[in-house]
Amino acid sequence: MPVLLCDLDDTLFDHERATREALGDLRRDHQILSQWTLEELDARHRVILETLHRDVLSGRLTVDEARLERFGRLLEQGGVREAGVAAVLAGAYREAYALNWQPVPGAVEFLQAVRAAGHSAVIVTNNGVAEQRLKLARCGFDIWIDAMVTSEEAGVSKPGRGIFDQALACVGATPADAVMLGDAWAADVEGAKAAGISPVWFNRAGRPSPDQAVPELMSLAPVAEALDVLARAGLASP
Ligand SMILES: [Mg+2]
Fold this sequence. Notes:
DNA polymerase, domain 1
């Protein structure tokens, strides 16, 4: 049974946009953050978020603790050391972020077409199950997928092989049946390859490819072209 394994954050779910909108709101409302342009703030925030996300994945920090720590570090970079301010910003960010949840353009139609073509679709994501389930429901992905495997439930994060094996097991597939689509080169592309699964790199920003031999998808729309790339990568017609 051919199966599309698919990353969630910044492949189907537009985390980048939600983050930027939330930071834009915060920057307007809190002067301490307006010392940076939105681009600078976004870049600083992203570096801290990616560092601390590793601690969330390993269980050293909860999502809430990591968010508080993130804004604490951001404020420190801006010359402020007040735990109270970090807590206010973390709370405001959480609210603004959740208000801006949206699919990557074309993502719902894309999943719908994958299923209509007779493929299974399984989400493989490095994050907590509660947060990711909410995203699936809010973005309307939940009715178009067969399963989701989160690193929290799997006990292993991408690029570890175990999470890919669990995703395949959900639908009784082998690595040869599957194509993995994701935006993170190390986690999604190299992780899939190491698990014997053909990768497709989701490269929305048009960054230079570390390996031209790996097929790339720059957009989920138009959907016929996206499916064509998956087919060329090895997602066979059932
Ligand atoms: Mg991703």
